[in-house]
Amino acid sequence: MSTATPSIELFGTNPYEGHPNLSETEAEVLWQYAKLSQNIKELIAETRRLSEAPDETLLKRLRALEVKMGLVLTLFKASVWAVINEQPVGDDSGAYTDTTADHSSL
């Protein structure tokens, strides 16, 4: 018996419907809980499968993204450098003036 068959049966019909000890609401809540439990079991199985072996497709896509991000970073640095180089260079003759010394006595 495969694990997919109970899952399909569980999601198709409510196994708790018509139970003599359960109200309609209780049967519905139990069914929703059973479906949630099955989804969590499938999620756990899938995450275990992914953690055991890397997803080659995902790795290729992440590598392509890494290359693009490197290109974006390089272009950003070049743009910043261009903006810095476009700034006007100040007049070096008045860049520093010693106002504390009295040069008239020399």
Q: Could you outline the blueprint of secondary structure elements for this entry?
A:
Layout: H1 4-12, H2 24-52, H3 56-86
Give a summary of the structure in a few sentences.
By secondary structure, the chain is mainly α. The protein contains 3 helices and no strands.
Shape: elongated
Question: What is the residue-mean pLDDT, rounded to a whole number?
Answer: 81
Helix content: 55-70%
Number of helices: 3
Low-confidence sequence ranges: none
The class by helix and strand makeup works out as mainly alpha
Q: Mind summarizing the main beta sheet?
A: none
Instruction: Give the termini separation.
Output: 106 Å
| % residues in beta strands | under 5%
Would you count the extended β strands for me? 0
Radius of gyration: 35 Å
Query: Could you state the order of secondary-structure elements as H and E?
Result: HHH
Number of domains: 2
Oligomer: single chain
Could you characterize what this model shows?
It comes from Sparassis crispa. By secondary structure, the chain is an all-alpha fold. The protein has two domains: 53 residues, no CATH class; 32 residues. 65% of the residues lie in helices and 0% in strands. The protein is built from three helices and no strands.
Key descriptive features of the protein:
106 residues; mainly alpha; 2 domains; 3 helices; elongated; mitosis; DASH complex subunit DAD3; chromosome partition; microtubule plus-end binding
